[in-house]
Design goal:
heterodimer, B: mainly alpha
């Protein structure tokens, strides 16, 4: 196995944490109140074709990341333009991740700590992880994933006793199809289709003969969907639709209500740990993605060399990206339009190009083989 | 205080990462490294010292999409 590689299983775990990273914290923000779970289900179904396209690209080019594929398929000018666009997408996503965690930490615990200090600490850990090998990042993520899973299971059992107000889920399907589809589109663009960033790490995922890239994407999306569905239903039942919609961190707020008499309380502390770990995984993926893109853009050999200055660039991006959590949540409305070129258009162009090139190569091969026979 | 932390971060990156890169004499890497650092410093100075009221990227993109795509 390559030194710079992670297994399929590790990739699935990292992808699940990537999907859960922001969404579990800031909620779904679908504007369909108690029908959020229907939008979530629709969003997952909408995301499946996109996810299959990502998996197909990975399957056609198993040992290449999306930037190498773009360089391989397109002429230099168009290829570089596409790479620049994808780099911007990664940079802005990284700045959003930091901004969300920044606000979360400052609103829940470190109230008077300056914004930049929290950002620098958060970035420092992620840059360190990105600088260490992808293999060790993968191994670490397995452990963290199990801890995350244990906390989810504990909160599930703790919330069972409190989830007696099922009226909060009624009336079901009280919104028009257009409203539900709008919410589904938001969920499609964040978090499911954001897994496009994993195409930047595709060259670092080692597959055994029987393992397929489709499995990686679908298992991760499915598992992420199940946890999000649970979190969404729990929040709706415990808090009620209006409180969930008006809260910036609904899961944290719901977790504060959980407890088993005087025996086990303040579970939100464990939840905060989960959020931070998932956020660090998400930020690390963004950093590696941007670093690999920049390396291809300028024709460098080693992507790790430029990770530290990219950390500083992300810090600056964080300052000009968003001012506060209100802007981020408001931006979710626009995000679904903004993300279309990066999550749908570019992968679609790359996929079609890859299919055409593969077919041409196959035809050429067949022609060469048939020549000696004549 | 905030600026001191940022200066410390830049110093750490330059001392522990940029100088070793210069010593390795890899021209391409040095060029890209300098470019990224200059870009990040410019953005930082622009937002913190020159124009603190600068529109954020999210606001800019929202306005752009509202203007050209006529959505929302």
């Amino acid at each position: 196995m390559k030194k710079e590689a992670m297994t399929m299983k590790q990739a699935i775990f990292i992808m699940i944490m990537f999907i859960l990273g922001n969404t579990t914290m800031i909620g779904l923000h679908t504007h369909v109140d108690q029908d959020a779970w229907i939008s979530l289900l629709m969003g997952f179904l909408f995301a499946l074709p996109a996810i299959l396209i990502y998996a197909r690209i990975m399957s056609i080019y198993p040992e290449k990341n999306i930037f190498e594929v773009i360089q391989d398929l397109f002429k230099p000018v168009i290829g570089k333009m596409l790479i620049v666009l994808m780099i911007f997408f990664g940079l802005f996503m990284a700045s959003n991740v930091i901004c969300i965690f920044n606000n979360f930490i400052r609103m829940t615990s470190l109230i008077s700590t300056p914004r930049l200090i929290v950002s620098v600490s958060f970035l420092f850990v992620s840059v360190y992880l990105a600088l260490s090998s992808i293999a060790s990042f993968g191994r670490g993520s397995v452990t963290v994933f199990y801890i995350l899973l244990i906390v989810v299971i504990i909160t599930f059992f703790m919330s069972l006793g409190k989830m007696n107000n099922l009226n909060n889920l009624f009336p079901i399907a009280n919104h028009s199809f257009k409203e539900l589809a709008g919410g589904a589109w938001t969920i499609f663009s964040m978090p499911f289709a954001e897994t496009v960033l994993f195409l930047g790490l595709a060259d670092a995922i080692i597959r055994k003969k029987k393992e397929s890239s489709y499995k990686t994407f679908i298992y991760a999306a499915l598992f992420g969907f199940i946890i999000l569905l649970y979190a969404s239903l729990r929040n709706e039942i415990l808090l009620g639709a209006s409180l969930v919609e008006n809260s910036y961190f609904p899961s944290y707020r719901a977790a504060r209500l959980l407890g088993i008499r005087n025996f086990l309380e303040r579970i939100e502390g464990a939840l905060t740990y989960d959020y931070i770990m998932a956020g660090i995984a998400r930020l690390t993926i963004c950093i590696i993605f941007v670093a690999k893109g920049t390396t291809k853009l300028f024709g460098l050999k080693n992507y790790k060399t430029i990770i530290p200055p990219l950390g500083l660039l992300i810090l600056s991006f964080c300052l000009i990206g968003n001012d506060n959590i209100i802007q981020i949540v408001d931006f979710l409305e626009t995000y679904r339009y903004y993300a279309i070129p990066f999550e749908i258009a570019i992968p679609l162009i790359v996929w079609i190009g890859a299919e055409i090139k593969m077919r041409n190569n196959r035809m050429k091969k067949n022609n060469i083989q048939s020549v000696p026979e004549q | 205080m905030e600026n001191a932390v940022v200066i410390l971060a830049y110093t750490a990156v330059i001392v522990f990462s940029f100088i070793p890169t210069i010593k390795k004499k890899r021209t391409g890497e040095i060029y890209v490294y300098s470019l990224i650092i200059l870009l990040s410093i410019s953005l930082y100075i622009l937002k913190v010292f020159i124009n603190p009221e600068l529109k954020t990227i999210s606001v800019f993109i929202t306005e752009l999409i509202e203007k050209f795509a006529n959505v929302k």
